[in-house]
Write a structure and sequence with these properties.
Number of helices: 3
Order of helices and strands: HEEEEEEHH
Shape: globular
Number of strands: 6
Number of domains: 1
Radius of gyration: 15 Å
């Protein structure tokens, strides 16, 4: 077990039917290398660390995560916002400088990301949501 996975903030969540989980009103997908590692409605531990970001621990193993954009409801409006260009499939070899990374992280600007990290690490802990 890595010391980074010990020295981090830990929260417990449950996966949904798609194998994703939400944290602070944001949805994340576990990188599963082509087959589902964590099945639906399983309890996972979300690991938060400024060095590696957000990871998931399940049955003693640690997995990386990426931000997941849920598909819109079929009954909802079919109007697409101007920012959406196309749906991006998750990639395993994401690097901050490549184009795939930029296509995934277009939705949240730098200030919102900093606010999210500030809420996690510096605000007083109220209750796990």
């Amino acid at each position: 077990m890595e010391k980074d996975s010990i020295l981090c903030v830990k929260h417990t969540r449950k996966t949904d039917a798609a194998g994703t989980f939400s944290f602070k009103n944001r949805c994340f997908q576990i990188l599963d290398r082509g087959f589902p590692i964590v099945s639906a409605r399983r309890e996972i531990t979300v690991l938060l660390n400024p060095r590696f970001g957000i990871r998931v621990e399940y049955q003693g193993r640690v997995y990386d995560t990426i931000r997941y954009l849920k598909p819109q409801n079929k009954n909802g409006s079919t109007k697409i916002s101007k920012k959406v260009i196309k749906t991006v499939e998750p990639h395993l070899q994401l690097r901050h400088s490549n184009e795939e990374w930029k296509k995934i992280w277009w939705m949240e600007d730098y200030n919102l990301s900093l606010k999210f990290l500030y809420e996690i690490f510096f605000e007083k802990k109220q209750s796990s949501s």
